[in-house]
Specification:
single chain; about 150 residues; alpha/beta; eight-stranded mixed β-sheet; 2 helices
Length: about 150
Amino acid sequence: MLSGLAALAYLSIQLGGSTYSGPGGLRLFAAFDEVGGLAPRSPVVIGGVKVGQVKSIELSPTGDFRARVMIDIDKNLKLPDDTAASILTQGELGSQYIGLEPGGSETLLENDGEIAYTQSAVVIERLIGRVIQSLGNSTGGGEKPSSDSSGGGG
């Protein structure tokens, strides 16, 4: 019975697709304006290969009201300091993950380093709201016409 449980545990780990070294790897931080549905334990990938995971998400301590994401990646990776991080959506389920794009700098990110180049998550509800708003404005949207002929009415 114990060997059956051990086999089940092994299969669970293998099917999970974990390829990075786990805790104790390289800890990095990235600040985003919007994290969308990103959550702790979301994967961090380079070129579609999982190299780490999100450890935590909290507000930045600098007071700029940005989300500060801590990620843990494989300690054997040597990432340039101009690496970019983007929050992307995976598949039809819409789960989100961080995609890293290494740059070309010779200087490497060190433990507790900050990824300076980030691209926030796209929130579909906001996009739909903007489209509806722009359609409303272009079709009149119930606004009174302005007598100002400068075209600066909004």
